[in-house]
Amino acid sequence: MSLQGCMHRGLTVPPMLCRYGFEALVYNEYHGATGFFFTPYAQKRIPGAKLPSVEVDGDTILGTFGFETENIRNNVAVLVVLLCAYLTITLLLLIFKRH
């Protein structure tokens, strides 16, 4: 939400700002989760044939996409610092605009 003004004006949002929040959300969703089943893609399906499925845990999914579970504390710390910076800038703008 804090970056909506950038998108409205046609500015681009640096991807590094989005990475911290996205990685924290993905970590929260998949870390320690089980019960994900993947089946191979087949162009032509044989009627009645059953494709084998592989059970994969959430940590394997995180590792496959390059999300490191050790980064969660760093991501949360960066988000807190960004929040404090945004709130401080907003407070300063409100104080100086009033005078």
Short description:
The chain has 99 residues and is mainly α. The chain has four helices and two strands.
Number of helices: 4
Gap from first CA to last CA: 28 Å
Low-confidence stretches: none
Number of domains: 1
Question: Strand-residue fraction?
Answer: 5-15%
Q: Strand sequence of the main sheet, in spatial order? A: 1-2
Global outline: elongated
Summing up helix and strand content along with how strands pair, one would put the structural category as: mainly alpha
Strand count, sense and closure of the main sheet? 2 strands, antiparallel
Please compute the radius of gyration using only Cα atoms. Answer: 21 Å
What is the mean predicted local confidence, pLDDT? 79
Write down the secondary-structure element order: HHEEHH
Count the strands? 2
Q: Could you describe the 3D structure shown?
A:
The protein is mainly alpha-helical and 99 residues long. It has one domain (4-39, 50-98). The protein has helices spanning 4-8, 15-30, 58-64, 72-98, and strands spanning 36-38, 54-56. 3% of the residues are buried.
